[in-house]
Amino acid sequence: MSLKKLWTALRGATNEGIEAVADSQAIRILDQEMREAKKELQSCDESLTRIMAKRKLAEGKVSALKADIETYTNHAIAASETDEALAIECADRVSELESTLDVEQGILDSFLSSEKSLKANISKAKTNVRRMEQQIEQVKATESVQQAQVAVSTRHIGANSKVKTALSSLDRIKEKQKQRSAELDVAEELAAEESGSSLDSKLKAAGIKSGASKSGSDKLAQLLASKKG
Q: Is the confidence at residue 161, as pLDDT, over 80?
C-alpha cells in the first residue's frame, strides 16, 4: 500500500472514530441543551411576569390620571361661572395632569408592546422546545430499539454458532460411545472364549447340553444296574 493510500485509510478511520464518539454523546448533549433552554425560558417567564406587573401599575396610573383630568375639568367648568381665578387654577391643573398622562401613557404603551413581543417569543420558544423534546424522545426510543435489535441479532448469531458446536460435540460423543460399546462387546467375547463358556454357549444353541444333569429315570436306572452288578 502506498503512503498516500495508507494516510487516506488512517484519516478515514480517525474520522469514523471521532464521529462514533460524537454520536455516542449526541443524546447527552441534546439533553443538556434542553435543560439550558428550559432554564432560559424560566428566566423569560420571570421577566414577563415583572413586565406584566409594571404594565398593570402603569395602567393604574393612567386610569388615575384620566380620572383626575376629568374631575378637574369639571371643576374648571363649574368654577368658571363663579370664580375665574379658581377656574384658571383648575385648568392649569388639568394641563399638568395631561402632560403627566402623556408620559405615563408612553410608558404603558412601551410595557404593552414589550409584553406582547415577549409573550410571542416565549410561546414560539416553548413550542420549539416541546418539538425538540419530542424528537429527542423519539431518537432515544429508536436508539433503544436498535440496540436491542443488535443485541438480539448478536445473540442469535452466537447462539447458532454455539448450537452448531454443541451438535458437533454431541455427534462426537455418540461415535465415541458406539466405539466404546463395540470394544466392550469384543472384550466380553474374548473373555468368554478364554473361559470356555463360549463353547458351552454354542452347544446349548445347537441343542446339545454338555455336562447337563441326567433325568430322574436315567439316574434311577443307573443306580439299580450298579446295585445288581
A: no
Cα(46)–Cα(38) distance, integer angstroms? 12
Which of 14, 2, 199, 30 lies closest to 131 in space, CA to CA?
A: 30
Return the pLDDT at 213: 55
- In whole angstroms, how large is the CA radius of gyration of the chain? 56
Local confidence band at 95 (pLDDT 50, 70, 90 cut-offs): very high
Grid coordinates representing 96?
A: 399638568
- Which residue shows C-alpha cell 463360549? 198
Determine the Cα–Cα distance for residues 225 and 218; give it in Å rounded to an integer: 11
- Cβ neighbours of 79 (radius 10 Å): 18
Q: How far apart are CA 106 and CA 103, in angstroms?
A: 5
Q: Is 214 left (phi over 0), alpha (psi -120 to 50) or beta?
A: beta
pTM for this one?
0.52
Half-sphere exposure of 127 (CA within 13 A, CB side): 6
Orientation angle between helical segments 84-195 and 3-79, nearest 10 degrees: 150
Instruction: Report CA dihedral (138, 139, 145, 149) to the nearest 10 degrees.
Output: 150
- pLDDT at residue 200 greater than cutoff 70: no
